Amino acid sequence: MKKIIKSDILENINLEKSQLINFEKIIKNESLEDVADKLIESTFVEQHFKRKDAIDRFLEFAFSRIQAGSFYVINMAYPTKRMYDKELEEKIIKLINEYLYPEIVLRILKFFSRNIHNSDTNLYIANLIESESIIKSVYDTFKLFQKDIFVYSEKKALNVKMIQQFSQQSDISLSIPLDACARFKYVLEFFAIKQNVSHIYTSDDLLLAS
User: Taking phi first (over 0 means left), then psi (-120 to 50 degrees means alpha), and beta for anything else, what does residue 152 get?
Assistant: First the structure.
């Protein structure tokens, strides 16, 4: 009977109204595999260019819970936070690194690249990332943006806008490759402090000037 009730919680989620999903309830009470399947299903429902799907909103939920958490400092130059609810945090880490991969990768890249005004808080989400595949995607995107720094044409910001999912007509000042590189560099430096990534990139690979 209990299993049926849990299944009903997921079945009754309206994927067209992902802003109404009670993420804490489903993450704590449902199998993570089932939760991931439901969130991934939403990506086939909410395909509007400017509309956030359930995976976007899941990341926003995780971010908000970290914001309300406690400071966690492994290096004074890279301060971050952790959730008070460690059980919830552990399940979210598993969802991000195991069950929602690879669908979550583009959402993480979009989150990092759009966070223009409070870029240091990208470390809140970065601290949840353990997957080397996700870390490599962040590094590859950094290199993509780096190549665009010295492009002198209207195409300069296209790759950044593509990752941000901004329209081509949006203000170019929001999508400057050098700024985006700096944001991603900060995250990549944090990864290197948190875990061994030397087989993916080194500190020299993150240099913006030789």
Answer: beta
Residue with tokens 């944090």: 190
Give the span between the Cα atoms of 164 and 110, in whole angstroms. 5
Q: Is 154 exposed, middle or buried (0-12, 13-18, 19+ CB in 10 A)?
A: exposed
Residues 31-49: pLDDT tens digits? 999 999 999 988 877 555 5
Nearest to 194 by CA among 125, 146, 148: 125
Residue 118 three-state SS:
coil
DSSP one-letter string for 6-68 = HHHHHHT--GGGGGG--HHHHHHHS-HHHHHHHHHHHTTT---TT---HHHHHHHHHHHHHHT
Supply the pTM of this predicted model: 0.91
DSSP conformational letter for 176:
-
Could you say which DSSP state residue 84 is in? S
Q: Which helix (H) or strand (E) holds 73?
A: strand 70-73
Peptide bond into 102 cis (omega under 30): yes
Token pair 């020299």 in the structure block, residue: 204
